[in-house]
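Hey team,

Sharing the Golgi apparatus membrane protein TVP23 run so nobody has to redo it. Sequence (181 residues) first:
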Amino acid sequence: MALEAPAPSHNVAVFFHGFFKVAVIVWYWVCTPFIDSFVIGFVVCVVLLAMDFWVTKNITGRLLVGLRWWNEANDTGSAWRFETLPEGTRQVLPREKRLFWLALMASTGHWVVACIIAVFGLSKWLLVAIMALLFNASNLYGYFKCSREAQADLKGYLNTTSNTLMQGAIKQQLTNAVSRV
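Structure output:
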């Protein structure tokens, strides 16, 4: 009886997956209001966003969840490509997978909120927030399309939620009908 070796831990990848996301958010909210030059604040934000996008797309996606995506452009147009490592070759730690998805969704959610705040005039950094949202949302979309498991989880959540809402609506209608009698 051979024991299967445990999946290797990717602590450095986990660190950098979170580091660039946190660094750009901290820079956006803490540093940019205190910098007189819009150009410096903008450039630092864009460089951090680009580093986060690249690390997430090219390194942490492969190591932490066994997924990758890319976009091919040619004379006839462009096409998104999605790849999932086969189950036998993929060794994914549940903790790392949860951290990967949590960081990806939390940062995208943060940039949605930052865009809303910037639109209402509470921040002059709307362009940075939009760029950040596009970078983070494209990574989230790409990895979501790669992951059959994430798609199944979302379908299950939507089915459960819709069933719960439907049951509540039916129960409310029955209660209203009974109260009228």
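The CA atoms of residues 22 and 164 lie 36 Å apart.

Ping me if you want the raw files.
A.
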